[in-house]
């Protein structure tokens, strides 16, 4: 019996590695698009144009004010029903991560730019740079350095958020663990390995981010 129990820790691994690949793929691609959205809406939140600022604020507040589980269900079922087409599960998951992360990244971008001393902008203007050039060459490089730690934290959050996509049968890490123990009734072993695999990614990431923060504080 002990041998059978112990073997489940090994037997589940191929399925979990397959799920891990999808977890990292969805997270990575979703965050790439999320960063693009975050940069766009982050700068929109800095705009003096009331319409642009207002639209960006609505996006940020609506997304941050609703759970990502509701968002994925809305995208996968709601939009599919509205448009009369079936949205692929992986595509829906990537869209959900991108939209959700984009709202939080927008605030990261806005906060990082605001954190740069106003004297930097004045210095750029004094040497003849336009507002856009000052942002591109002086403010943005400094702001981006300050964004690295919170962006890393967003990676960890989005990675864990993918576990919710099991509700639409996306073959991510948790879902594959559920499939295994559903067939073998080895829930303890399967879920233990699922948690360990999450920790193998999130703990080193957290340690690295703390080191980065210390270096940036120097």
UniProtKB/TrEMBL annotation:
Keywords of the record, alphabetical order, are:
Amino-acid transport, Cell membrane, Membrane, Transmembrane, Transmembrane helix, Transport
Record CDD domains: TM_PBP2
Topology in the lipid bilayer: Multi-pass membrane protein
* Protein's cellular compartments: Cell membrane
Per UniProt, residues of the ABC transmembrane type-1 domain are 20-209
Biological-process GO terms, alphabetical: amino acid transport
Transmembrane domains' residue ranges = 20-44, 51-78, 90-109, 155-175, 181-209
Q: Which InterPro entries match?
A: AA_ABC_transptr_permease_3TM, ArtM/GltK/GlnP/TcyL/YhdX-like, MetI-like, MetI-like_sf
Name the predominant localization: membrane
Q: Which family does it belong to?
A: Belongs to the binding-protein-dependent transport system permease family. HisMQ subfamily.
Q: What is this protein called?
A: Glutamine transport system permease protein
Record the organism.
Thalassobacillus cyri
């Amino acid at each position: 019996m002990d041998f059978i129990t112990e073997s489940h820790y090994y037997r589940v691994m191929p399925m979990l590695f397959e799920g891990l690949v999808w977890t990292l793929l969805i997270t990575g691609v979703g965050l790439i698009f999320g960063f693009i959205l975050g940069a766009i809406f982050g700068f929109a939140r800095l705009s003096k144009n009331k319409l642009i600022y207002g639209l960006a604020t609505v996006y940020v507040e609506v997304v941050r004010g609703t759970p990502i589980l509701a968002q994925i269900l809305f995208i996968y079922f709601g939009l599919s029903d509205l448009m009369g087409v079936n949205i692929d599960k992986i595509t829906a998951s990537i869209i959900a991560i991108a939209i959700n992360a984009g709202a939080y990244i927008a605030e990261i971008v806005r906060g990082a730019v605001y954190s740069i001393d106003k004297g930097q902008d004045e210095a750029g203007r004094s040497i003849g740079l336009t507002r856009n050039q000052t942002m591109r060459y002086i403010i943005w490089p400094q702001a981006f350095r300050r964004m690295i730690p919170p962006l890393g934290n967003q990676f960890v959050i989005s990675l864990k958020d993918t576990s919710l996509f099991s509700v639409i049968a996306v073959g991510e890490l948790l879902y594959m663990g559920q499939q295994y123990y559903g067939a073998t009734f080895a829930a303890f072993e399967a879920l233990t390995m699922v948690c360990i695999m999450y920790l193998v990614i999130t703990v080193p990431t957290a340690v690295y981010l703390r080191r980065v923060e210390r270096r940036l504080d120097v």
